[in-house]
Amino acid sequence: MAPISNTSPPRLGKQLKRAFFGRSVHEVAHDLIGATMLVDGVGGIIVEVEAYHHTDPAAHSYRGPTPRNQVMFGPPGFAYVYRSYGIHWCVNFVCEEEGSASAVLIRALEPTHGLAAMRRRRHLQDAHALCSGPGKLTEALGITIAHNALPLDRPPIALHARTEDVEVATGIRIGITKAVELPWRYGVRDSKFLSKPFPK
């Protein structure tokens, strides 16, 4: 991964279109590692995600559509934003064909673009702590329920493919009580920006 720089962010790869998300949630989750996520030009390199499939008891869509999760049942390539524990917003990318109701939770970023804005929003300076968790990164990027159901390939959201190969690690997901054994967390094994390290 390119190092953090306050003056020259790493170059961006090609912009990802909604068709990118119309595949297996696991393929998308794997391929998002190393991609760059920006909201109004602020963001960074995705270093950690989790996959949630509609057959998975931990998925919000497992018991069917509700007003909150309705966007998960729509076409792929849209944002699903929800409040976690009544405190933090979390952002997910809807995947697979319409009706599948599968999504990738974005867990951590390496900040590369708009660090001043992120530090202001998070009220801290340590770049490693700005986006090292799903609630932290949404606060840093200014993501709220207003971003729910927005397309992932139009402003204010932009996603860019990774520009270099990365070694993708897998492990069990974090902070859930169902299907805890599934190795559906993906990330950069040795990244200093993870919410939690991967086992060696």
Automatic annotation (TrEMBL):
Record carries keyword Metal-binding: no
Gene3D superfamilies: Methylpurine-DNA glycosylase (MPG)
Signal peptide as annotated in the record: none
Domain of life the protein comes from: Bacteria
Listed EC numbers: 3.2.2.-
Record-linked InterPro entries: Formyl_transferase-like_C_sf, MPG, MPG_sf
Keywords, in A-Z order: DNA damage, DNA repair, Glycosidase, Hydrolase
Keyword Hydrolase: yes
Entry GO MF terms: hydrolase activity, acting on glycosyl bonds
Enzyme class: hydrolase
UniProt record similarity statement: Belongs to the DNA glycosylase MPG family.
Name of the molecule in the record: Putative 3-methyladenine DNA glycosylase
